[in-house]
Amino acid sequence: MSDIDIKRVYEVFQPSDGFRVLVDRVWPRGMTKEKAAIDLWDKNIAPTTELRKWFGHDPAKWDEFQQRYIAELKANPVAVNALLQQIKGTHVTLLYGAKDEQHNQAVVLRNFLTQLSDL
Questions:
Q1: Quick check: pTM over 0.85?
Q2: Mean pLDDT by 10 residues, the chain (119 residues)
Q3: Strands, sheet with 4-8, edge to edge from the N-terminal-most edge strand
């Protein structure tokens, strides 16, 4: 499995980021395509709009958000498998726009992908 890091899309691009995947459904506010340096943006791998709005980055909803997002990922094997094929054997950085570095979809997605590779 690939080595997976996470970071805010607003942080400066580093060549060491490797393959950069935006895991937000909406484009980050104020970010240009050049600055973002995204290699892949598949909105289908991001939480649905309904889930994102429900969560609202409320840490009190974190546990349930994780469960709901993982359920969405499991219900979308085509997008997950496509992502796995894209990142196979390469260093990956999952990018997100949220200010909260502990409670965001990139954290959940990294854990989910890492668990898949352990099977």
A1: yes
A2: 88 95 95 94 95 95 98 96 91 95 96 79
A3: 4-8, 92-96, 19-22, 40-41
Helix (H) / strand (E) containing 33 = helix 33-36
Chain length of the chain: 119
Element (H, E) at 18: none
Query: Cα–Cα–Cα angle for 109, 112, 116, nearest 5°?
Result: 135
Q: Which residue has the tokens 């909105």?
A: 43
What is residue 4's three-state secondary structure? strand
Alpha carbon distance 110, 77 (integer Å): 16
In this structure, which long-range contacts are made by residues 66-75, counting pairs with CB atoms below 8 Å and at least 24 apart in sequence? 66/108, 69/105, 69/108, 69/109, 70/108, 70/112, 72/47, 72/48, 73/45, 73/109, 73/112
Residue 32 CA, distance from chain mean position: 18
**Burial class of residue 16 in the structure, from the number of CB atoms within 10 Å of its CB (0-12 exposed, 13-18 middle, 19+ buried):** exposed
